[in-house]
Amino acid sequence: MTDLSIGQYVDLRIINEPEVTPEPKTGAEISIEQLHKFYGQVKVLEDLDLHIQAGEFVAIVGRSGCGKSTLLRLIADLEQPSYGEIKFRSLLNFREGITSDDIRVMFQDPRLLPWKSILHNTQLGLKKHDFAKAEQLLEKVGLKEKAALWPSQLSGGQRQRTALARALSHTPRILLLDEPLGALDALTRLEMQSLIEKLWLEQGFTTILVTHDVSEAVQLADRVILLDKGHIASEFSIDLPRPRIKNADFARLEQQILHAVLAT
């Protein structure tokens, strides 16, 4: 697996790609208040408060076992809090609240059905009148020509692109990313980062990324949250212009966050 060492900072902007103009934010606000999650006597999250703006891109970092993925599962309603509240509000006020249909999760494993084609995997859960949207998203992620293939015929990066297209075909207000790029090689990972950022800018959904990669967090997020033993240890605002270049300012923020993680 190819990797980039700390200190190698290059311009990662895609050559000749047109600059994306951000659309109005269509995501949802997330308010987390006094959140606790226990498994028996084990405290995973304790008295956690966090507010995420509609359309914001937040990255959550921290050591293994600090509660990152548990927090994502609670937001996705895949698990229930032991105590506390997670509240949502639609920025466009289409309705009072946000339901689980407005939230999509992308995992490290693409979780594609091996007996269905790439197109049919992307169309899962959609009504027939929305099937064209799935085809459009396959084109956006560069897989239009692969639509009739089986998942086994794609590379790992292409399978993750399919999983991303499937998640976005449901027009989510909130996209939760649970280390979706962790198993990819370095160059494919960079391509996927650029693709996720491009689609987020186009569609304006609220995004929460769980990652162990501090560089990835700085590359994508508006704000980085450091969790430690179920608490928010630190928050870092990433005020760097997009598309981001790995220059001295980028390196400074990366090192600042990395040192905070190592100190936990």
UniProtKB/TrEMBL annotation:
It comes from the Bacteria. PANTHER family: ALIPHATIC SULFONATES IMPORT ATP-BINDING PROTEIN SSUB, TAURINE IMPORT ATP-BINDING PROTEIN-RELATED. The lineage of its organism: Bacteria, Pseudomonadati, Pseudomonadota, Gammaproteobacteria, Moraxellales. Transmembrane segments: none annotated. Keywords: ATP-binding, Cell membrane, Membrane, Nucleotide-binding, Translocase, Transport. Belongs to the ABC transporter superfamily. Residues 30-254 form the ABC transporter domain. Pfam families: ABC_tran. It comes from Acinetobacter chinensis. This is ATP-binding cassette domain-containing protein. InterPro entries: AAA+_ATPase (IPR003593), ABC_transporter-like_ATP-bd (IPR003439), ABC_transporter_ATP-bind (IPR050166), P-loop_NTPase (IPR027417). One of its GO terms (molecular function) is ATP binding.
